[in-house]
Amino acid sequence: MITMSEKLPNFTSYINSPKNNGEKNGSLQEVKPRLLNGELVVGAAHNVIMLTPLSERDRGRMGSLFVTNYKLSFVPLELCPHDESGQRNYLLGPHDVPLTGVGAIWMTDGGPVRRRRVGLNGDTPDKVKGLQVICKNMKVLTFSFINSSKGNGRKIAMALVHHAFPKRHHLLFAFEYKEPYYRTLPLDLNMFDRTADWRRELDRCDCPHWRITPINATSDAFMLTGSPTLIVPMSALDCNLIEYARHFKSGRIPIWVWGRAEGAALLRSGELLPTAQALQAECVLLEHVRRSHPKLTPPRVIYLCGNSFSNTSSTSTLPPLGILQASYKKLAELCTPTTLAGFWVQDSQYYSILDSSRWLRYVANCLAFADEAAEHLSKNVSVVLQEGDGVDYCAVVSSLTQLLVDPHCRTLSGFQALVQKEWVALGHPFCDRFGLPRPGSSAPTSPSAAPQAAPVFLLFLDCVWQLTNQFPAHFQFTETYLTTLWDCTHNHVFDTFLFNCPRDRDLPLVKFQCPETYLSFSEDTEMVPKYFVSKRRDSELLKMKNFIQRPVWDWSEQFSDQDKTLFYNPLFSINKTPAMPKPRLSQTSISMKAPELARLEPCTSIAGTELWSQCYERWLLPLDAMHSGVVQYHVHNYAVLKEIQQLNEKLSQLSILSNRQSNCSETSESNRAVVSRFYPFSAGKRDALTGALDSKQNIHDRIMYQASLIDASQLLDSQSLLNAPD
């Protein structure tokens, strides 16, 4: 028997409905978020509308909005096919944002047009009609509380402001996450957290004229934000290094980061302090670097931000961090329009706004410095990079230089080890640059004392993307991997980008305001510093004891094998020519001319750079077109790779002739797979790749087969798709 309710469709309009309390009528059901171990809900609002981005009409989806101690989560009442169409994250839902990924919060009148910035210390009105959240990855989320109960908007706003911008480092969710972690990192991934790891890198580069010193892990440490293990010239004594460090910013004397067996080395250094003996100390250290070269070749010093000691600079130098941050804000404004009308206005002035931001100019300057350093290294000349505290642009240019000269760094494990070495182990201040509170102290009270926030790591990833765009067959990882890595820098479940230096990482919360705390060091076989704490408050001691370090490189914690397959470049190939063993340099070989190092030679002019569309514009729906973007080439290449695998399987069974027809049909089906421009970060067809993408178990062997058949020039786009007429 058919009832009346089955005959008539049960339809409820959530848009333009009367401004009543929907919860009181009980017309809408309540949903709950998916919580992690240790995650708690601190604010909730039901019957919330999430507006469609850049929509001409007042359209949206009804659901519930939650603020937890980890994320901002919107749970729709009804599932949509596009919710699971892109990259699936085990920790975050399709409409979830980690709290550390929140960049700015705006109050609206219920729509995306009129808005007012929510201050961290400002008063929030009793009635908040809508909220707009600008994420650090340039995603814009707009919510309307027009159908929600009175006060829900204010409750969400206050909870979001309080928990998204914590004043203490130990309030981050990484200290609350209780899920056990079992490390499954690749065996060839060098984490650079032990002395043996640095010795392993020194042996890999075959540099016998340099030595490892444990001085920075003792009470005589002079580089407090650096690694406990440093590599210095063989002729330099530890007692002299301590004296020389007094003349460099943050004690950043020139330290070894990479070298070649023929003698050339790459070093990083901080700027000189204005002391009477600063120039003399620098000359002495450069002399030690010269002695470490078998041919006694003088090193070349490259001043990334100009020579601060002589107050000389040029237009090609890199800007101060404040100017870089201002440049990024202009770029973010271009890529985060809140209305469709504003999008078209910006689009009509797109290139002028992009040029005025000067972002691509700074990208080109970083590539130019890296190319200059790589050229000297290829000619067997040591290079010393010098900048500020030696932790920002030094890390950018040093990493890019190694990508140009070392093929190992262009593999996935090699690139991750490169980030561990140059950024994590050598103390890039991620907390300061990402706007997080410093470990061991509360947020500064005065603006002058605030640490400088700047997207230095994003600048590096952008430069790496430029290289992958110019050399599409030389990198094992894809732009999808780089974009995912940038998203993960704002996921505070992982500790990789959660601290300023290794000392903060070794024992979190050890420097909190506790007068009974004292610090000492002891040495063991790995020369790792050990801290001893007494009479600490129970809550802080418990957090410190239960903190679990989770490196972001364990991608299985977040993604499936199918998602991880998109990290691998199907065109990547490794030179299989057997390399001749490198003999140790001797007196007889010193007179011989060292062979010039093979390196990548990128285009370093601003005309050769492009905007990283997948990272910056992936949330702009008008630009997300089907059959477009570099990802289409990857989809096609994965399909061809699968075809090659099938043919090889048939060859192994000696039955390829009898199954030729079936193979052709399977191939044509996979070749018809179509995704959108910003896949897998947009609402494209995920199922289209189900047959083309397999797990990465045998991806390496299949990549080797396809690399010899596919023309790498197929990956080169003529120019960006954002060329709409004015």
Overall 3D form: globular
Oligomer: single chain
Number of domains: 3
Structural class: alpha+beta
Radius of gyration: 27 Å
Q: Give unreliable regions as ranges.
A: 1-27, 443-448, 508-538, 575-591, 665-671, 684-726
The rounded distance between the terminal residues' Cα atoms is 61 Å
The number of helical elements comes to: 23
Percent of residues in helices comes to: 25-40%
Strand content: 5-15%
User: What profile does the largest beta sheet have?
Assistant: 8 strands, antiparallel
Q: Could you tell me the mean pLDDT?
A: 81
**Strands, count:** 14
Strand order, sheet with most strands:
4-3-2-1-8-7-5-6
Can you describe this structure?
The protein has 726 residues and is α+β, with helices and mostly antiparallel strands. It has 3 domains: 7-165, Roll (PH-domain like), CATH 2.30.29; 195-319 and 358-565, no CATH class; 613-715, no CATH class. 32% of the residues lie in helices and 10% in strands. It has 23 helices and 14 strands. The radius of gyration is 27 Å and the shape is globular.
Brief descriptors of the model:
single chain; alpha+beta; PH-domain like; 8-stranded antiparallel beta sheet; disordered N terminus
Helix-strand layout with pairing:
Blueprint (H helix, E strand, L loop, with lengths): L3 H4 L14 H4 L15 E11 L8 E9 L2 E6 L19 E3 L3 E7 L6 E3 L12 E6 L4 E5 L7 H13 L30 H11 L4 E4 L16 E4 L4 H7 L10 E5 L5 E5 L8 H14 L8 E4 L17 H15 L4 H9 L1 H8 L1 H20 L4 E4 L6 H13 L6 H14 L4 H5 L21 H15 L8 H10 L13 H5 L31 H9 L14 H5 L21 H4 L22 H4 L14 H22 L7 H12 L27 H9 L19
Parallel strand pairs: 12-14, 13-14
Antiparallel strand pairs: 1-2, 1-8, 2-3, 3-4, 5-6, 5-7, 7-8, 9-10, 11-12
Helix pairs in contact: 7-9, 10-11, 10-14, 11-12, 11-14, 14-15, 21-22, 21-23
